[in-house]
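USER:
I wish I could look at a protein chain and see how it folds. I am handing you a single protein, as its sequence and its fold in token form. As I understand it, each token names a local backbone shape. I hope you can help me see how the letters and the tokens relate. The protein I mean follows directly.
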Amino acid sequence: MTEPVYRTMTEEEYLRWDGPRDAKWEYVDGFIYAQAGATRPHNTISTNIQRVFIPAADARNCSTFVSDLKVRIYRDGRPRYYLPDVVVVCNSNSEGDIETQPCLIVEILSASTRAVDETFKASDYQRLESLQGYLLVDSERQGVMFHRRTAQGWQLEAVDESVQLPCLDVSLSVEAIYRNVPL
């Protein structure tokens, strides 16, 4: 997440706003934040993940979305809109390009997004009752972490070889994630 635009907006203004096309914009506590452009490794990782997700999603009547679907979360009664790198939805409660019931979210980390993705977004995403997992994939070195919802609460797992993902019930290997990514 980059520095905010220093004029606050209401939620309604943000949803109507057609900001500059050179960035994607997230909405947090009345401020809009430009999202950095994706690098080649980021795009390759996203494509590799989609290669695994799409057949599994089709088999379960689910959908996968890449980077332009807004996910709405409420914190302290205030809406936040994020644009995750990959969103999986099996029981949609969508309002156009806004989703409120994703079952799996993937964020691809970079130097500019790492801190926010690992802390604020992790905390916010875990507020979603429908969310079963939050996958963090590093785009600058091989590293994968997975937040899994369990009966005992959220557990963080380091992924060394592969991870069995909920809602799609598919195994995603580190090798598949980083296929053709020179790191």
The chain has a mean pLDDT of 92.
